[in-house]
């Protein structure tokens, strides 16, 4: 079964960013001018994100054992992480003596309005999950917070009897509301902050920001719906 609520996977917690980490000054990086004044600091620079994803791809390929993979990308926040991860997986396949077939499908889970979880998850798309039967499935997600959203998705997918299900999440939040679920592959473990950038949005804004940043109160008010 994907993930674990009992013990951390072999790859641990990923890169752990502690609660007292001050982040990087915004003036050290370039970012879209239309977001000036809307951000507190850079939490994870783009280059570090890319390097970490490359390592995750190596870990995943080693784990799955060069078997064909059905990648299920969770939109919208997961699309950039998914695209970069799949590209690294394909590069590993191209440089190996065995071709690994990778197909990508998409599902959308709606659980946030403004910066608050709505509690109940809405599943949009992915209505033909029967195609996952007997497949090695890799779910690619942007953020695991409480874990309830991912558990609900896994429960849905496992009805179709895939051969194997693994979960890769770019970020895992330390939140007191967590039910203990952890993905099989974690990029970064971060404090309980609302972050934007690298396709992570706040009401559809900030997807064009390459770094992962912490949004400030001014930014939340500016883009609130």
TrEMBL record:
Family statement drawn from the similarity comment of this UniProt entry: Belongs to the purine/pyrimidine phosphoribosyltransferase family.
Name of this chain's protein: Hypoxanthine phosphoribosyltransferase
Main location: cytoplasm
Its EC number(s): 2.4.2.8
Annotated compartments: Cytoplasm
Molecular function (Gene Ontology), one example: nucleotide binding
Pathway involvement of the protein, from the record: Purine metabolism; IMP biosynthesis via salvage pathway; IMP from hypoxanthine: step 1/1
EC class (word): transferase
CDD domains (UniProt xref): PRTases_typeI
PANTHER family documented for this protein: HYPOXANTHINE-GUANINE PHOSPHORIBOSYLTRANSFERASE (PTHR43340), PHOSPHORIBOSYLTRANSFERASE DOMAIN-CONTAINING PROTEIN 1 (PTHR43340:SF5)
Pfam families xref list: Pribosyltran (PF00156)
Membrane-crossing residue ranges in chain numbering: none
One GO CC term, this protein: cytosol
GO terms (BP aspect): IMP salvage; purine ribonucleoside salvage
Co-factor(s): Mg(2+)
Ranges for domain Phosphoribosyltransferase: 47-202
Record's catalysed reaction(s): IMP + diphosphate = hypoxanthine + 5-phospho-alpha-D-ribose 1-diphosphate
Keywords: Cytoplasm, Glycosyltransferase, Magnesium, Metal-binding, Nucleotide-binding, Purine salvage, Transferase
Gene that this sequence comes from: PRTFDC1
